[in-house]
Specification:
pyridoxal phosphate binding, Tryptophan synthase beta chain, tryptophan synthase activity, alpha/beta, 16% strand, pyridoxal phosphate, 19 helices, 454 residues, 4-stranded parallel β-sheet, EC 4.2.1.20, 42% helix, Rossmann fold
Length: 454
């Protein structure tokens, strides 16, 4: 029998509580503001969009939040997810580094997004809500909410960013299998969508636009709520099951990461793995180097400004303090659709401001280079989003080889790329371009940030 590859927990080890990093931070996050009054939001301001329990989770400073048993029961369909030692990749790189990945592609939709979709569907069902609206970039979140809606008998309408809607038709099909309706965004179904189409009929769309459409529908219908797949505190809270399981699995492996890595678009899969490890560090445990990896075509953490901004393009959402490229910024239509968002989770933004994490930006061609190298060693075809983390992992492993140091590297393989084959076909055909944003467009978007008194 060879050396162990998979570290698998029993279903009884699924966490019973989510972890909230707010309890361990040296300062609290800035409050969300009402866009009209610029005053901190109260629960009543969020009530048209979210059920009471999620509003509470959004603002709580408690370290642990209990996971309802109906949510854990559905988690059992795929959780605990495996922690895998990438021994074949280590051998291919001839590195002394020990590489592990938490594989979230084992869920039915194939990504980590289901961790929060199930929780959000449960709380909305409990509150008597009948319908949910949402946005999706690459389609992983949309298909996850479609699945969760089917589990709890909720209707789901998904506004999918046009670039991804055209690139990934099978994601739309998956949503429809589970009973959801998927619409290309911007659409003619909302005032926000019609306004964008009138001004930019050929737009590739953006998550900010799709959020505006979903929020508009939810705000206009009393039996409908909005669900967000990333960015908000309660979403990052739900994703903490990833890192909480990983902590147990590293005990099984008799190892502990020196470096923890995740791709970052809105911040949920990165935070899901990294925040429990940062929590251990903040409470006096071992220090880790945490790296968030993003596309150079949408460099929210590496180029964005830390400021109050709208979470959507139509300015229907509250103002949150985050790293942002400006709500009017529309990134190029590169293949990692889940990373095409102008803002970053306020909590991820804050931990970067506190110096607890660092961020790096990568072009998509070297990311696909890394994704293919990983697939040929480990057998799993990663989603384009996750290839950004893999690029960083390989670079760090090669640095260990150069320096002769045996560091332990852990990353979140947030989802598989089975619905991204056109992207890989483009890569092998030499059609994949390292697309970049227009600097003038970025500066214009940043110049248009809301004026919030210090």
């Amino acid at each position: 029998m060879g050396a162990q590859v998979k570290y698998v927990l029993d279903e009884t080890k699924i966490p019973t509580e989510w972890y909230n990093i707010v309890a361990d931070l040296p300062r609290p996050p800035s409050p969300a503001l009402h866009p009209g009054t610029l005053q901190p939001l109260g629960p009543a301001d969020l009530a048209p969009l979210f059920p009471p329990e999620l509003i509470m989770q959004e603002v709580t400073a408690e370290r642990q939040v209990p996971i309802p048993e109906p949510v854990r029961e559905i988690y059992r369909q795929w959780r605990p997810s495996p922690l895998i030692r990438a021994r074949r990749l280590e051998a291919a790189l001839d590195t002394p580094a020990r590489i592990y990945f938490k594989y979230e592609g084992v869920s039915a939709p194939g990504s980590h997004k289901l961790n929060t979709a199930v929780a959000q569907a449960f709380y909305n069902k409990e509150a008597g809500i009948r319908r949910l609206t949402t946005e999706t970039g690459a389609g992983q979140w949309g298909s996850s909410l479609a699945y969760a809606g089917a589990m709890f008998g909720l209707e789901v309408r998904v506004f999918m960013v046009r670039a991804s809607f055209n690139q990934k038709p099978y994601r739309k099909a998956m949503m429809e299998v589970w009973g959801a309706k998927c619409v290309s965004s911007p659409s003619t179904e909302t005032e926000a969508g019609r306004r964008v189409l009138a001004e930019h009929p050929d737009t590739s769309g953006s998550l900010g636009i799709a959020i505006s459409e979903a929020v508009e529908i939810a705000a206009q219908n009393a039996d409908t709520n909005y669900a967000l797949g990333s960015v908000l505190n309660h979403v990052l809270l739900h994703q903490s099951v990833i890192g909480l399981e990983a902590l147990q699995q590293f005990e099984m492996a008799d190892d502990y990461p020196d470096i923890v890595i995740g791709c970052a678009g809105g911040g949920s899969n990165f935070a899901g793995l990294v925040f429990p490890f940062l929590g251990e560090q903040l409470r006096g445990g071992r220090k880790v180097q945490a790296i968030a990896c993003e596309p150079t075509a949408c460099p929210t953490l590496t180029r964005g400004r830390y400021a109050y901004d709208f979470g959507d393009t139509g300015h229907l959402t509250p103002l949150v303090r985050m790293h942002t490229l400006g709500s009017a910024f529309v990134p190029p239509g590169f293949h990692a659709g889940g990373l095409r968002y102008h803002g970053m989770a306020p909590l991820v933004s804050l931990v970067q401001e506190l110096g607890l994490i660092e961020s790096r930006a990568y072009n998509q061609t070297p990311c696909f280079d890394a994704g293919v190298q990983f697939a040929r060693a480990e057998g799993i075809v990663p989603a384009p989003e996750a290839t950004h983390a893999i690029r960083c992992v390989i670079d760090e492993a090669l640095r260990c080889k150069q320096e002769g140091t045996a560091r332990t590297i852990a990353f979140n393989l947030s989802g598989h790329g089975h619905f991204d084959m056109q992207a890989y076909l483009d890569y092998f055909a030499g059609k994949l371009e390292d697309r970049n944003y227009d600097e003038a467009v970025l500066q214009a978007a940043l110049a248009d940030l809301p004026k919030v008194p210090a």
